[in-house]
């Protein structure tokens, strides 16, 4: 009986089966992660942006697509145990890369979401880093004790891998690209239903589908948002304009500290991180939405609209 690594030959076959089952389980994990990311690509892109390592929108989209494709192909390959001689080294590199990225987020505190499984399984970067370390070690064991060096591909496996690759391409096509860009003035799928019952300190719950509002999307640690505060205050004090409601994904402590330091002339509510990134899309902070009776009339990116601009969009001065 053939030996596998340093395991005695009389137990080699049993250990090979165990580690190949582990490879299959890891493959299912990667396929699931890839699928969930593709089903909410906008959120995944936002989570990549939150790491603060890359800011170019096109590059972020390419990285998002690339990670989805790599995880899909590696997942299918691990399930089939197809050409493990190159598959397992690539999987090892993937875990190293993911461990480095989540470790960076853990140490710097730039984000509280790892982005590993989209909106379905929220994890903090610290937990994700430890998990990635565990998967990295398991992959090394699979590489050593699964008989990978004795395994080659096969025509049937090659056909299945080709089919999996084709399915992955279809998945990427259907995941698309978030429909929000820096130059876009309207959002056709604005998530009114998701923000209608958000509690706003001092204002209670507001239905953004009723009446007119200026929604100010911001972050307490955004330098552009901080620099624009005097202009936003002027906009908020213009009584002929709709009231400004700021929304942020920051927690209570961060928002309270921000309010104490800057004393804004408008309330700041909290929304979930996935909704925040959906509203931001591929634009930059601060972002302003002029909403009226369930419609998005105008969007301003990385700049505060002038009072005259808002009045012009509304047609006539809006009531206070």
Tell me the β content.
5-15%
Distance between the termini: 84 Å
Structural class: alpha/beta
Q: Taking all residues together, what is the mean pLDDT?
A: 81
Question: Would you give an account of this structure?
Answer:
- The chain has 320 residues and is of the alpha/beta class.
- It folds into 2 domains: 9-175, no CATH class; 192-314, Glutaredoxin.
- It has 12 helices and 7 strands.
- The protein has helices at 9-39, 41-50, 57-80, 84-108, 125-145, 155-175, 192-195, 223-227, 229-237, 252-262, 273-280, 307-314, and strands spanning 199-200, 204-205, 212-217, 244-248, 268-270, 287-292, 295-301.
- Helix 1 runs antiparallel to helix 5 (125-145).
- The longest helix is centred in the N-terminal third of the chain and has 31 residues, at 9-39.
Which secondary structure elements does this structure contain, and how are they paired or packed?
Elements: H1 9-39, H2 41-50, H3 57-80, H4 84-108, H5 125-145, H6 155-175, H7 192-195, E1 199-200, E2 204-205, E3 212-217, H8 223-227, H9 229-237, E4 244-248, H10 252-262, E5 268-270, H11 273-280, E6 287-292, E7 295-301, H12 307-314
Parallel strand pairs: 3-4, 4-5
Antiparallel strand pairs: 1-2, 3-6, 6-7
Helix pairs in contact: 1-3, 1-5, 2-11, 3-4, 3-6, 4-5
């Amino acid at each position: 009986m053939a030996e596998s690594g340093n395991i005695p030959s009389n137990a080699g076959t049993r250990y090979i089966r165990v580690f190949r089952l582990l490879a299959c389980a890891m493959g299912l994990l990667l396929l699931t992660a890839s699928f969930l990311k593709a089903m909410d690509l906008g959120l995944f892109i936002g989570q990549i942006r939150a790491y603060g390592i890359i800011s170019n929108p096109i590059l972020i989209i390419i990285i998002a697509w690339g990670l989805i494709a790599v995880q899909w192909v590696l997942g299918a390959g691990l399930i089939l145990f197809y050409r493990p001689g190159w598959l397992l080294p690539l999987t090892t590199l993937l875990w190293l890369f993911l461990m480095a990225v989540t470790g960076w987020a853990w140490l710097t505190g730039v984000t509280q979401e790892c982005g590993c499984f989209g909106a379905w399984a929220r994890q903090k970067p610290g937990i994700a880093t430890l998990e990635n370390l565990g998967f990295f070690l398991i992959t090394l064991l699979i590489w050593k004790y699964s008989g990978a060096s004795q395994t080659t591909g096969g025509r049937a496996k090659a056909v299945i891998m080709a089919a999996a690759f084709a399915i992955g391409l279809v998945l990427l096509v259907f995941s698309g690209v978030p429909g929000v860009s820096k130059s876009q003035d309207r959002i056709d799928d604005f998530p009114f239903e998701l923000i209608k019952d958000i509690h706003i300190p001092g204002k209670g719950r507001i239905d953004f589908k009723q009446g007119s509002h200026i929604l100010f999307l911001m972050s307490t640690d955004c330098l552009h948002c901080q620099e624009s505060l005097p202009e936003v205050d002027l906009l908020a004090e213009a009584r002929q304009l709709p009231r400004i409601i700021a929304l942020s994904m920051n927690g209570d402590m961060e928002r309270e500290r921000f309010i104490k330091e800057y004393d804004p002339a408008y309330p700041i509510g909290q929304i979930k991180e996935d909704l925040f990134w959906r509203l931001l899309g591929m634009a930059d902070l601060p972002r302003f939405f002029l909403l009226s009776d369930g419609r998005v009339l105008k969007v301003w990116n990385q700049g505060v609209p002038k009072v005259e601009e808002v009045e012009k969009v509304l047609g006539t001065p809006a009531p206070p």
